[in-house]
Design goal:
8 strands; TIM_sf; alpha/beta; EC 5.3.1.1; 44% helix; triose-phosphate isomerase activity; binds 2-phosphoglycolic acid; 256 residues; single chain; Aldolase_TIM; TIM Barrel; Triosephosphate isomerase
Length: 256
């Protein structure tokens, strides 16, 4: 089967109303029709998920949640279980986003969430990324440790085709001018593949998909696709703008 790139739209806590969410989704539906080789995963806030899921959407558009509970079920006020997300038709879950890590999510909790996702048949998108870079390369050790602690102990069969979104925290929520350069992205995605290979085997590394996230916009998407050695994007703020998201999708789709 031909390998497909992935573009994840992480809407975070936006837009403000369901009406606006439907508008954004409508524009994605329109755009998706011209996209041939790329899967689009829309991750709206929970209250908008079901109403959007009920609308028709092209075959290359999927839904994801931005988070799941680390427990399968039980008395956990405010949490949403993987089963609930799956039950209404969600296919993916972002796990371990840096904004959730900042709220206290540890690698250990993230590993539990990954296990829950696999048990529920939700496809996880594991986020990793350093807070800052330093010339001694300590950020690489940091990323390696995140991958190791999040994935070690999970059954190897689950790691086949694992999706990792590399999102350097310092580059998130800014403009394309402050995003990571395509060359640095290339180096880091190679490093991530190497780490996955060392820890879990070359076959797992080859089958893995590495996305880049952090201020991907219309202006830098093309060069990251060309030089960044990525299998797609995780897009935050630009995924809410039809114009921006259209350019990003087209850039991703051109690669194949
Ligand atoms: P950004 O967010 O595209 O707004 O930088 C990316 C993310 O945090 O997932």
């Amino acid at each position: 089967m031909k390998r497909r790139d992935i573009v994840v739209a992480n809407w975070k806590m936006s837009p403000e109303t369901l009406i606006e969410a439907k508008k954004v989704f409508n524009s994605v539906r329109g755009l998706a029709k011209g996209i041939r080789n790329t899967d689009i995963i829309i991750c709206p806030p929970f209250p908008f998920l079901y109403p959007l899921l009920k609308l028709n959407h092209p075959k290359n558009v999927f839904f994801g949640v931005q988070n799941i509970a680390s427990e399968i079920k039980g008395a956990f006020t405010g949490e949403v279980s993987a089963d609930m997300a799956k039950g209404i038709g969600t296919k993916f879950s972002i796990i371990g986003h840096s904004e959730r890590r900042a709220m206290g999510e540890s690698n250990e909790i993230i590993r539990k969430k990954l296990q829950v996702a696999f048990d529920t048949d939700l496809i996880p998108i594991l986020c990793v990324g350093e807070k800052e870079r330093d010339k001694d390369g300590n950020h690489l050790a940091f990323i390696k440790n995140q991958i190791k602690e999040c994935l070690t102990g999970l059954h190897k069969k689950y790691l086949v085709g694992i999706i990792v979104a590399y999102e350097p925290i310092w580059a998130i929520g800014k403009s394309y001018k402050e995003a990571m350069t395509p060359t640095d992205i290339h180096e880091t995605t190679l490093f991530i593949k190497k780490v996955i290979g060392e820890l879990f085997g070359g076959d797992i590394a080859v089958g893995s998909k590495i996305l880049y996230g952090g201020s991907v916009e219309a202006e830098n998407a093309g060069s990251i696709v060309e030089y960044g050695n990525i299998d797609g994007f995780l897009v935050g703020h630009a995924s809410l703008s039809a114009e921006q998201f259209s350019a990003i999708l087209k850039a991703a789709d051109l690669k194949r």
